[in-house]
Amino acid sequence: MNPKISDFGMARIMEANEGEGNTVRIAGTYGYMAPEYAMEGLYSTKSDVFSFGVILLEIITGRKNSGFHKSKRAPSLLAYAWELWNNGKELEMIDPVLADSCCSDEFSRCVHIGLLCVQEDASERPAMSSVVLMLKSDNSIDLPHPQRPAIFAGRFTDHHEAKADDCSVSGLTVSDILPR
């Protein structure tokens, strides 16, 4: 698996010498925004790391984070991934389309990295440069143990129905762009 997604835009609104900031104008999609940004308007370079983690878990599972709470299996994709990973069952959530594309250790490592990226406390998330090293390392770098991820669902998620059994059925992902 080769990582190719790396820019989610929040870091662009900061000055070159800023590491964090605050705004009263929240822009983005709930479920992909870091909780400190969505709830308090606080943003940093770690906000993009959170978004990357959500997308990484979506790619691995073939399921969307938005609307996942309606599946009644977990309040969010992040909670579902955490529960399975924490119980050593993370391979149960792998999108069947990807199942034969690489070894199970690589999938487990990607889930682990995704969970590190979606930590509730921004200071616990790795820097994006560290994420890239982790993804390239082939188990040569020991990963820290993630804590329970940030979980905020229900009123913050999309209104589309989703089922835990929904997964991709082809190698193509289609994104619907809707007005705010």
UniProtKB/TrEMBL annotation:
Gene Ontology MF term list: ATP binding; protein kinase activity
Domain Protein kinase: 1-148
Listed Pfam families: PK_Tyr_Ser-Thr (PF07714)
InterPro entries reported for this sequence: Kinase-like_dom_sf, Prot_kinase_dom, Ser-Thr/Tyr_kinase_cat_dom
Gene3D superfamilies: Transferase(Phosphotransferase) domain 1 (1.10.510.10)
Superkingdom of this protein's organism: Eukaryota
This protein's name: Cysteine-rich receptor-like protein kinase 10
Species, as recorded: Populus euphratica (Euphrates poplar)
Underlying gene: LOC105116954
